[in-house]
Amino acid sequence: MPAKKREKTKYTKKELKMFDKIIDKKLEEAQDQLEYYLNQIKELAHNDDAKVKGLDDGVGTAESERLHNMANRLRKHVQHLNNAKLRIQNDAYGTCRVSGKLISAERLKAVPHATLSIEAKQKAR
Asked: What are phi and psi of 102, to 5 degrees?
């Protein structure tokens, strides 16, 4: 009878380094986007101060709200990515917080800040 194959429970240091690089790249992209939105918000506020309020005031308000929402989403995304880096440092990265099993490498490459396996994510819906 063949020996039962042991299920992998942690990623190797080499794998963690790869995930860390992926996270760094995503962090850089997210921070660049966040900076862009914050600059747009400043520009819009500056333009609103300079012009007389008129019929297009609603358009400016809607655009300002949209930019603030996008910036807030990016702030959360940056925080999730930073938390993932902490999990790497604490040797807790890649473990599903529900099942305790290893999250697939494919999922972590696509969503490096994931804390749930696909199965746990689907059950949570």
From this structure: -70, 130
pTM for the full model? 0.82
Nearest one of 92, 118, 120 to 106, comparing CA atoms: 118
**Residue 44 shares a structural domain with residue 72:** yes
Half-sphere exposure in the Cβ direction for 37 (13 Å, CA): 19
Token pair for 20: 């860390």
Which two tokens mark 33?
């986007």
Q: What is the pLDDT of residues 47-59, one digit of tens each?
A: 765 454 554 566 6
123: domain range? Answer: 94-125
- 31-49 pLDDT, tens digit each: 999 999 999 989 888 776 5
Query: Which SS3 state, helix, strand or coil, does residue 11 take?
Result: coil
Half-sphere exposure (Cβ direction) of 24: Cα atoms closer than 13 Å: 7
* Domain presence at residue 66: yes
